[in-house]
């Protein structure tokens, strides 16, 4: 059975896969930064904040250069994209994830070890859309 994919749909699928790979790296950076900071005696709130900042900076770099790279003739102002990246990950990675964890664990009594995995089903596609259509939105080409 052959499922036809347009060139644009295939491009978006490839972007989503690349976005997922960057996300795996972000998760590792965030966790290892957190663990290292806690190990050296920093408060876990500080450790979490440092892990978040480093992982978002990593995400911005790779998403800007690799996932949502500008094509010939396209331009993107990097600083607004960076701010939008922090806002996107802050809203989904901190605010939405915390609210969802409360619902899964405290309301629906899902295991606190399973609940973050359920969150990924919601936050990964949402982060992809926010990054693609907002943080790394392409500017119109100059004619």
Structural class, judged by helices and strands?
mainly alpha
Shape designation: globular
- Give the integer mean of the pLDDT values: 84
Compute the CA-based radius of gyration.
17 Å
Describe what you observe in this structure.
- It is a multi-pass membrane protein.
- Keywords: Membrane, Transmembrane, Transmembrane helix.
- It is found in: Membrane.
- The chain has 143 residues and is an all-alpha fold.
- It has one domain.
- Helices cover 76% and strands 0% of the residues.
- Helix 2 packs across helix 3 and helix 3 runs antiparallel to helix 4.
- The longest helix has 33 residues, at 7-39.
- The termini are far apart.
Which helices and strands, and how do they pair?
Layout: H1 7-39, H2 44-67, H3 78-107, H4 115-135
Helix pairs in contact: 1-2, 2-3, 3-4
